[in-house]
């Protein structure tokens, strides 16, 4: 799957997406979107400074 | 190579705030054993000192010190007493847990070394995204394991703790490598 990369908000390096965790919707908007596919939280780690960032999206 | 030589951070979480808790002695033993290992840093995370806010939700009640420690952690040792055949401890949902190693130390007054508590904690760890190891440490009949000053009376616990930590360190190192360098397909 083609995935949008993420830049580390601390140091600007390209982060590594190492996990996609299924999550439950927290709003009606997310619930409606989740009905079209799985709602996940993507977890990214910065190999340079170790910072962790995540984003929720529909897989 | 760099990756292997870099120090790991594996804190010990003391999972009960009870006055008179015996689990504190168990946590001290685990801390001593982690400190005895080369290449691993540790500290005690005492849940008594982690504020638990009830006046908001989600990200805004994150304790910055606790989430900073979790962000730095490559693995966790959770010391969890058995209360009512279940686990005790704080399990806030943090993205910082994902793909990190966890080992559980059970503590009980009864003869099973907190194993019922551990069994009930395993699926929670999985849901948090932590990776359980297949070693536990079981402090059974804990009042007989320490004297009244908290001195460990049975050397076998140190050996078991060291075996448990060898597996935890391997898992922590392996997962750190994966978090940094192995992208999800
Ligand atoms: C509310 C409560 C429930 C408990 N339930 C159990 C139990 O189910 N099985 C057991 O072996 N011990 C049980 N205990 C005893 C604890 O295992 C005992 O306190 C032990 O010393 C470990 O916990 P501590 O760190 O609080 O001392 C219970 C203790 C409390 C306070
Ligand atoms: Zn960075």
TrEMBL record, chain A:
Superkingdom: Bacteria
Descriptive protein name: Uncharacterized protein
Species whose genome carries this gene: Eiseniibacteriota bacterium
From TrEMBL, chain B:
Domain NADPH-dependent FMN reductase-like, residue spans: 12-133
Organism: Eiseniibacteriota bacterium
Name this protein carries in UniProt: NAD(P)H-dependent oxidoreductase
InterPro entries the UniProt entry points to: Flavoprotein-like_sf, FMN_Rdtase-like_dom, NAD(P)H-dep_reductase
GO molecular function: FMN binding; oxidoreductase activity
Gene Ontology cellular component annotations, sorted alphabetically: cytosol
């Amino acid at each position: 799957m083609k995935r949008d990369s993420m830049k580390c908000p601390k140091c600007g390096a390209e982060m590594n997406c190492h996990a996609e965790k299924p999550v439950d919707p927290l709003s009606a908007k997310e619930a409606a979107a989740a009905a079209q596919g799985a709602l996940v939280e993507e977890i990214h780690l910065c190999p340079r400074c170790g910072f962790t960032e995540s984003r929720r999206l529909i897989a | 190579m760099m990756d292997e030589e870099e120090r790991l951070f594996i804190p010990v979480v003391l999972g009960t705030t009870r006055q008179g808790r015996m689990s504190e002695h168990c946590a001290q033993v685990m801390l001593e054993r982690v400190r005895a290992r080369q290449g691993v840093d540790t500290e005690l995370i005492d849940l008594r000192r982690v504020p638990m806010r009830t006046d908001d939700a989600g990200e805004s009640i994150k304790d910055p010190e606790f989430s900073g420690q979790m962000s730095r952690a490559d693995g966790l040792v959770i010391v969890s007493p058995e209360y009512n055949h279940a686990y005790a401890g704080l399990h806030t949902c943090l993205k910082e847990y994902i793909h990190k190693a966890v080992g559980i130390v059970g503590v009980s007054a009864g003869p099973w070394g907190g194993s019922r508590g551990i069994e009930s904690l395993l699926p929670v760890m999985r849901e948090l995204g932590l990776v359980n190891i297949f070693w536990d440490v079981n402090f059974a009949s804990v009042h007989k394991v320490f004297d009244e000053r908290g001195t460990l009376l049975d050397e076998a616990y140190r050996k078991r703790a060291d075996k448990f930590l060898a597996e935890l360190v391997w898992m922590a190192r392996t997962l750190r490598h994966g978090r940094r360098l192995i992208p999800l397909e």
